[in-house]
């Protein structure tokens, strides 16, 4: 009877696993029975909660990967905590030794990451004896930024309501919080900001601090520190003060007391993330003070216990300077003025998470300031969760971009942040393939040099199937997907032509919004003569914010043509075509790629359980329809402003 119960439980959990809840941590059984099997997991060193998690995670994962149990020749796995060479927190090695396979680290989290790394390698079908790793994270802080509101709504979230159950916290911490922490730990994420940068001061009230503490206690053993977005006007909103002026002694004292209160509840509290004087949020400029004044005041309150992450995403309605220039104009002169525990967080590009943007000119331009790179994992401008777009190539493009000043973007930053795409949907991210973007973010924050192809392959093998025939088809499909979106939404450097407010679907014609820089026409500037935003010296000269050699390279990059130049419709491209000829080709190419993705996926049914296969196929059909919508609506509009006939095969719809 016991056996029967076990069998039926196992069946239930196997069926459950296919709704995507288990993410890339499925540990599907390894078929090759001839493989050397891992045996018992042995802890060497003082046991801590994190080490125990590492051991249990490994034991459980191995039992799932090798369900036959430890029959035949087995090799013990040693988790060795050593006192030893100076390694970056989280570093580990994996190597075969006489006594077995050893995961060695000089920190608890190193062992935890090592345990997950071993499972990742085995999960791809690698033989135990062949696994040799020597890894250290490239950055100390690898964090998710949640844009989750206390009422459960997630700004730019496409995966349901927030995963944070404020209503029942702190009395009840949902088991999902452990699953969430575990997923993050498995890819090396070690910091989470749990509330929206458009913050409510509520989050800093004692009742919410108690809730945050319950989450922090849950995340801690997984090596994750909790951070809060702080509303700059909190001393007024909830503190009973008349001002939030950062130079006012009462305001400074209020923040210091608030920080102390946080640290007494959460001893390893990470610090504050702040969006100030941006899109209507309060900030130091309300009192005639600078961003540095504001950030440094909070930094003083936090002291050496944590950091203040201050966002550089600023642009103002009153300012008629090119929006792409404003962050640099405001922040670059402040280089050297920020306290040492302030990190300035810069979005990957100068506008706003578009399908393709040049890298932000602040990277490399603030050598005396710690910078964080902010990436958006949730796909606000890339078709939400409905469209399949694997973002590793986008992330890789920005990380690898040469700033011409002090190396690549990856070289110039010390923190990597990603705007989370999680929600309470069963599959966490709203679509199965969006799990890959969470995964890719974590892997690149750990090692910015990992190629997109490897990340895609690792993820797909663990999430769906490690069969080479499956991987050989799905990996190229994933790698081509982001370029497809660029082609059918914003080819040749176009940007911000999405529907008003929600940013879904085409709306390049919108011209009547209150603020000029919210209108798509502000960005594409199409008229009878041509199209594109002149950001050269004859226009806004945003180009001059880059190092001269880089500016030259960007100007020559046709993928960014209309980002930097306003060109006539008859402008000749390097392939000999005119812009008017090339545009429809790009849209067509995007549409064709999506159609191909649908065919590829249809052929992969034998490798994927029915439930997830069907869900992905449905979404690809939606995407195929919407790629055509994007193409047809965009071309019809460009035709109407240019006064040129639509190319053959692109008749205006009836
Ligand atoms: O991309 C824009 C989004 C806003 C967001 C803002 C920001 C959180 O449309 O929803 O607000 O950027 O990054 O602050």
TrEMBL record:
Entries under Gene3D superfamilies matching the protein: Alpha-glucuronidase, C-terminal domain, Chitobiase/beta-hexosaminidase domain 2-like, Glycosidases
Domain Glycosyl hydrolase family 67 catalytic: 124-428
All copies of domain Glycosyl hydrolase family 67 C-terminal, residue ranges: 429-650
Keywords: Hydrolase, Signal
Pfam families (UniProt xref): Glyco_hydro_67C (PF07477), Glyco_hydro_67M (PF07488)
Annotated signal peptide: 1-17
Transport found in the keyword field: no
Entry protein name: Alpha-glucuronidase
Organism: Sphingomonas plantiphila
């Amino acid at each position: 009877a016991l056996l029967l119960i076990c069998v039926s439980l196992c069946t239930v959990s196997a069926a459950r696993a296919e709704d995507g809840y288990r993410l890339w941590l499925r540990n599907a059984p390894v078929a090759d029975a001839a493989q050397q099997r891992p045996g018992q997991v042995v802890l060497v060193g003082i046991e801590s909660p994190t080490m125990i998690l590492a051991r249990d995670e490994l034991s459980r994962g191995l039992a799932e990967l090798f369900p036959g149990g430890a029959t035949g020749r087995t090799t013990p796995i040693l988790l060795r905590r050593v006192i030893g060479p100076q390694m970056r927190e989280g570093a580990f090695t994996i190597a075969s030794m006489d006594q077995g396979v050893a995961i060695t680290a000089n920190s608890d989290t190193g062992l935890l990451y090592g345990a997950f790394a071993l499972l990742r390698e085995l999960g791809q079908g690698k033989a135990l004896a062949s696994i040799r790793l020597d890894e250290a994270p490239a950055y100390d802080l690898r964090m998710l930024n949640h844009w989750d509101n206390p009422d459960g709504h997630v700004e730019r979230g496409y995966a349901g309501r927030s995963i944070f159950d404020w209503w029942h916290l702190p009395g009840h911490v949902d088991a999902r919080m452990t699953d969430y922490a575990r997923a993050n730990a498995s890819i090396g994420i070690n910091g989470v900001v749990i509330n929206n940068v458009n913050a409510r001061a509520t989050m800093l009230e004692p009742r919410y601090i108690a809730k945050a503490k319950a989450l922090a206690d849950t995340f801690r053993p997984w090596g994750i520190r909790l951070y809060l977005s702080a509303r700059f006007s909190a001393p007024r909103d909830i503190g009973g003060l008349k001002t939030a002026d950062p130079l006012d002694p009462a305001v400074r004292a209020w923040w210091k007391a608030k920080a102390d209160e946080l640290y007494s509840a959460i001893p390893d509290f990470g610090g504050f993330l702040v969006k100030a004087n941006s899109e209507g949020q309060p900030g130091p400029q309300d009192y005639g003070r600078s961003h540095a004044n504001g950030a440094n005041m909070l930094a003083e309150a936090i002291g050496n216990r944590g950091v203040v992450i201050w966002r550089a995403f600023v642009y103002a309605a009153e300012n008629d300077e090119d929006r792409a220039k404003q962050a640099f104009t405001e922040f670059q002169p402040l280089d050297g003025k920020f306290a040492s525990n302030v990190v300035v967080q810069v979005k990957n590009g100068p506008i706003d998470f578009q399908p393709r943007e040049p890298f932000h000119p602040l990277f490399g331009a603030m050598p005396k300031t710690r910078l964080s790179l902010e990436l958006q994992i949730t796909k606000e401008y890339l078709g939400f969760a409905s469209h399949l777009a694997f973002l590793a190539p986008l992330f890789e493009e920005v990380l690898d971009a040469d700033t011409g000043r002090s190396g690549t973007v990856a070289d110039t930053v010390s923190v990597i942040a990603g705007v989370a795409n999680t929600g309470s949907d069963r599959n966490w991210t709203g679509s199965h393939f969006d799990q890959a973007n969470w995964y890719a973010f974590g892997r690149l924050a750990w090692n910015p040099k990992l190629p997109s192809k490897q990340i895609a392959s690792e993820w797909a093998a663990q999430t769906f199937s490690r069969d080479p025939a499956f991987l050989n088809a799905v990996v190229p499909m994933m790698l081509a997907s982001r370029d497809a979106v660029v082609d059918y939404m914003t080819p040749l450097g176009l940007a911000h032509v999405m529907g008003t407010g929600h940013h879904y679907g085409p709306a390049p014609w919108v011209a009547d919004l209150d603020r000029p820089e919210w209108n798509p026409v502000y960005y594409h500037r199409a008229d009878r003569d041509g199209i594109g935003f002149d950001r050269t010296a004859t226009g806004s000269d945003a180009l001059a914010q880059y190092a001269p050699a880089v500016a030259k390279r960007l100007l020559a990059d046709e993928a960014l043509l209309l980002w930097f130049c306003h060109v006539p419709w008859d402008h000749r491209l390097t392939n000999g075509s005119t812009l008017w000829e090339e545009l429809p080709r790009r849209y067509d190419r995007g549409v064709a790629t999506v159609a191909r993705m649908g065919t590829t996926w249809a052929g992969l049914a034998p490798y994927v359980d029915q439930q997830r296969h069907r869900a992905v196929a449905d979404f690809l059909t939606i995407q195929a329809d919407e790629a055509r919508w994007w193409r047809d609506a965009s071309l019809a509009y460009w035709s109407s402003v240019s006064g040129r006939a639509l190319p053959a095969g692109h008749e205006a719809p009836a």
